[in-house]
Amino acid sequence: xxxxxxxxxxxxxxxxxxxxxxxxxxxxxxxxxxxxxxxxxxxxxxxxxxxxxxxxxxxxxxxxxxxxxxxxxxxxxxxxxxxxxxxxxxxxxxxxxxxxxxxxxxxxxxxxxxxxxxxxxxxxxxxxxxxxxxxxxxxxxxxxxxxxxxxxxxxxxxxxxxxxxxxxxxxxxxxxxxxxxxxxxxxxxxxxxxxxxxxxxxxxxxxxxxxxxxxxxxxxxxxxxxxxxxxxxxxxxxxxxxxxxxxxxxxxxxxxxxxxxxxxxxxxxxxxxxxxxxxxxxxxxxxxxxxxxxxxxxxxxxxxxxxxxxxxxxxxxxxxxxxxxxxxxxxxxxxxxxxxxxxxxxxxxxxxxxxxxxxxxxx
Length: 363
Hints:
Layout: H1 3-13, E1 26-29, E2 38-43, H2 46-54, E3 59-64, H3 79-89, E4 93-96, H4 98-102, H5 108-115, E5 119-127, E6 131-138, H6 140-152, E7 166-174, E8 191-203, H7 207-217, E9 225-230, E10 234-249, H8 251-261, E11 268-269, E12 277-286, H9 291-296, E13 301-305, E14 320-323, H10 326-329, H11 333-344, E15 350-352
Helix pairs in contact: 2-3, 6-7
């Protein structure tokens, strides 16, 4: 398969536009070449590059980007440079998925929630500044065709609903000059006609597709349209997730349950509050920034990683705050990616890495 074919599937799984601004996702190393096998891992370390060579895989799909900040030199002096050098030398492409999958409704935090069997889950921190609105005007006999084209391009999705739009009637006016070629009326004729105003929302990274559909399926020579950024949070894209256990658990029992399900080497936690745990917030990876969000959402416990000493105070005796380990909180993500790719690409080598790249050890 061509690399471009596979990256298309990966971007369907986790659109790059979903990633946080600070992140570095997508194709990090490589170019358009034939792919003979895919190795999926958590971190594309040098040992993983060796594994890819041994298993004849020339594409590595990793969760964490091995290239996170810029490199001014590639001399092999550190683990990042050594991995990149070896990948380039052996013509191995590297694709990172990271926060593009963190922010997906069925991504990292849904995987985390499912491992704990949480139900009634929803996004903890919905993504802001990600929705745009298109407003356009057309003739009544063009309205249905145009709407359907916009829906097909990705417009009109709101939560659990699709093909959403608002339509209103009004009177449009225009007069063409000597260079015009109006669909309705003649040059230099002042035209008053019944028009339909169509309003739809869409995710901002789809704007190019939306406008292409608009211009392709609109009947007017000159298309009147407006695009706005709107402040509504996107309820199905964002960081973290919150859900409920089937049955409440005592705090000690809950942490034992988490330790077993997430295969934790240890759990650091805030003081027990002597209350049952029912509502649980999770955020895979470094999630200290979401403590207040978990409290505001009414969580009894918040599971995340990389908490510092003073951040445990932020629990404020309002919830149980637990650091289960960075790798542990994301441990099932690579399995999810493998399953997805095997469903999309049959009769092709897609291999789950056997290298444990967790840098944290427990004594």
